[in-house]
């Protein structure tokens, strides 16, 4: 560089700025020139999706939102150096979503990262529900397959990943899946490409789903590479790379999307009540919520895009989501995207519910469909029509209940453990969130004297009684103190000092109300595991019998499932009249005293005799107040409910089952039958409750 060059000074004045503090930042000449050039060019605005280009973005998650963050949470900042980084750099995917090349086939890929899925019940529950009945093309259970097996062993897969730190779950949904020759082959080709990008063999299983309007694949990948080390995948590869590979494979098999085909697909989105690619493009092009669609030079591509947008805006205007402020200038409602997404979700719910009803040969008015985002305030009684994963990626479940109130109820976000007994066809009651008082709250209320709870006194009593499992008395009392600390933050209790807490008189009620307000998950109680038609002719005590003794039918509407229940009640009543368990006096029907207990004992005697013949043991009926002891060997589902089988050396008995006894399968148990239920006791002072 010469001396003249070093001393040369060239002034470059910027834009004149206002002294007013309220004035916005002035736009430079270059910015204004670029904007003017875009308005007169054939290219879409910066960040906009050019509609006819075969966009492969996930409509439900346009920017891969959350996927990158989930991947980075897997190993912290180390995920940036995870497997697949070379592919990300080569394709320019780092830092954000990149449009696929024109003509590429769209493929939706959703990704989720799950911690400790193999060593807990989460992985087993997810695997069980993606293989549930009705997911295959012929309505049979879904078939699990892998890279080399057409019938993979799910239990063996879970056993191999029991100690894995995490697992990855994918949903792969090609837009033109009907044109693929083999969805299973496409999935295997994709996973081989992913293995090549990551530089390791993957242990994975998959299930094809044909139970929705758009077939898709569920893939579960162990969080372990071929060397047994933790599998770390680059976040951008999870968000975008797998979709790029899937799109390329679909395009290779089917061929590129033609201009005419793409135009037809986009035109079909104009009148849809969901968030579409047209909406996404308009939001990206809008500035400060305003979209300028005034006439432009007559170029075929731009004119087609403008026509699509104007037709879509006309639809959105009727929905109150867009307003024409001036000829060709439209204002988009800030709530446009969330509103359309919510409408799309509700539409999906209605369609899936309709399919479930149709599979059972039922028809219902869609106006009777009711979607519950939280626990219902009024209990819902009805028949389970469908049970499935809420988001198909997690473990929470959704129930579709055909209610006796004549409505179809869709209740989502339920704990899978609570729904284990709620089979399709069973009669259930879905109620508000559980507001029962915790045992710790009852203990605190019982220990309080004059409204003061003292942890030191509670510790002395716990040591004196010696009923704390493991003998950790201090830890036992500390759990009560932590509970009080949580309630103090809620304003329910007051801490005076380290050993004194002020407890209100209605402490248990207020604590339970606080828990109910935080817990939005509905409670589900199985009223009968038997279908309605089987209850009519059953010899045990059924839910229909309970309704007959109740007498009142005001909550059972004469339509839908309510009418079916009314007809079933009449048939069950006539059966009791024939068998002598009921008599008619004028317009009234009088039932045998202790009808439910009589029917239950009658069924237990029949089933007990059958089991005694098969087991070679004597059946001993359980009596009220009698202690029962033996080995818990299994359960029996009867019309009268579910019963636990307790065996001794020469005999066995059947007693009412409760979920709390399940962990004791194969072990010695002891309990006392009390009023149709039982109190189980395991060891000294360990009462499992009623």
UniProtKB/TrEMBL annotation:
Residues 1-11 have a biased composition (Basic and acidic residues). Residues 32-43 have a biased composition (Basic residues). InterPro entries: DUF3363. It holds the Pfam family DUF3363. Residues 1-77 are annotated as: Disordered. This is Relaxase/mobilization nuclease and DUF3363 domain-containing protein. It comes from Paragemmobacter kunshanensis.
């Amino acid at each position: 560089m010469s001396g003249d060059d070093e001393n040369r000074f060239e002034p470059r004045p910027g834009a004149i700025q206002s002294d007013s503090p309220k004035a916005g930042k002035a736009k430079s000449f270059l910015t204004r020139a670029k904007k003017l050039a875009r308005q007169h060019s054939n290219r879409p605005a910066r960040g906009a999706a050019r509609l006819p280009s075969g966009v492969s973005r996930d409509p439900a998650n346009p920017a891969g939102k959350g996927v990158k963050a989930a991947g980075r949470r897997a190993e912290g900042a180390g995920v940036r150096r995870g497997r697949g980084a070379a592919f990300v750099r080569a394709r320019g995917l780092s830092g954000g979503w990149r449009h696929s090349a024109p003509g590429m086939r769209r493929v939706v890929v959703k990704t989720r990262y799950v911690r400790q899925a193999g060593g807990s019940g989460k992985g087993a529950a997810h695997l069980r529900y993606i293989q549930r009945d009705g997911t295959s093309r012929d309505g049979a259970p879904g078939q699990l397959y892998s890279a080399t097996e057409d019938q993979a062993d799910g239990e063996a897969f879970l056993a191999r990943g029991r100690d894995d730190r995490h697992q990855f779950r994918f949903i792969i949904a090609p837009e033109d899946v009907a044109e693929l020759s083999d969805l299973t082959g496409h999935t295997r080709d994709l996973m081989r490409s992913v293995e090549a990008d990551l530089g390791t063999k993957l242990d994975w299983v998959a299930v094809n789903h044909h139970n929705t309007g758009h077939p898709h694949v569920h893939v579960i990948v162990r969080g372990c590479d071929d060397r047994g080390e933790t599998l770390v995948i680059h976040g951008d590869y999870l968000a975008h790379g797998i979709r790029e590979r899937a799109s390329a494979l679909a395009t290779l098999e089917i061929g590129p999307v033609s201009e005419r085909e793409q135009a037809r697909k986009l035109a079909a989105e104009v009148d849809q009540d969901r968030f579409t690619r047209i909406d996404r493009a308009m939001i990206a092009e809008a500035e400060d919520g305003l979209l300028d669609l005034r006439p432009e030079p007559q170029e075929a591509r731009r004119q087609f895009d403008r026509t699509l947008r104007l037709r879509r805006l006309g639809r959105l205007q009727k929905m109150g989501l867009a307003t024409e402020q001036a000829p060709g200038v439209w204002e988009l409602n800030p709530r446009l995207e969330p509103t359309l997404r919510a409408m799309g979700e509700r539409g999906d719910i209605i369609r899936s519910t309709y399919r479930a009803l149709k599979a059972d040969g039922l028809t219902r008015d869609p106006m009777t469909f009711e979607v519950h985002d939280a626990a219902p305030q009024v209990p819902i009684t009805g028949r389970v029509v469908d049970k499935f994963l809420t988001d198909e990626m997690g473990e929470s479940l959704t129930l579709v209940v055909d209610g006796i109130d004549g409505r179809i109820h869709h209740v989502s976000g339920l704990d899978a453990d609570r729904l284990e007994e709620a089979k399709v066809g069973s009669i259930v009651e879905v109620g508000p969130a559980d507001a029962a008082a915790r045992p710790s709250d009852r203990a605190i209320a019982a220990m309080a004297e004059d409204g003061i709870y003292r942890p030191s006194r509670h510790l002395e009593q716990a040591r004196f009684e010696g009923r704390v499992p493991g003998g950790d008395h201090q830890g036992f009392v500390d759990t009560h103190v932590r509970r009080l600390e949580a309630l103090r933050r809620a304003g329910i209790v007051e801490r005076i000092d380290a050993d004194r807490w002020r407890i209100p008189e209605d402490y248990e009620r207020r604590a339970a109300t606080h828990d109910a307000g935080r817990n939005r998950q509905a409670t589900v109680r199985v009223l009968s595991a038997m279908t309605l038609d089987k209850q009519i002719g059953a010899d045990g005590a059924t839910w229909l019998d309970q309704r007959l003794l109740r007498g009142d039918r005001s909550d059972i509407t004469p339509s839908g499932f309510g009418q079916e229940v009314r007809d079933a009640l009449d048939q069950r009543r006539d059966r009791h009249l024939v068998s002598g368990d009921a008599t008619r006096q004028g317009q009234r029907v009088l039932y045998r005293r202790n009808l439910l207990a009589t029917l239950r004992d009658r069924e237990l005697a029949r089933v007990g005799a059958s089991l005694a013949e098969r087991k070679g043991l004597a059946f001993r009926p359980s009596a009220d107040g009698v202690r029962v002891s033996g080995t818990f060997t299994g359960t029996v589902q009867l019309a009268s409910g579910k019963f636990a089988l307790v065996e001794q050396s020469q005999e066995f008995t059947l007693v009412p089952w409760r979920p709390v006894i399940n962990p004791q399968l194969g072990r010695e148990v002891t309990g006392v039958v009390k009023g149709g239920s039982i109190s189980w006791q395991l060891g000294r002072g360990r009462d499992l409750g009623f």
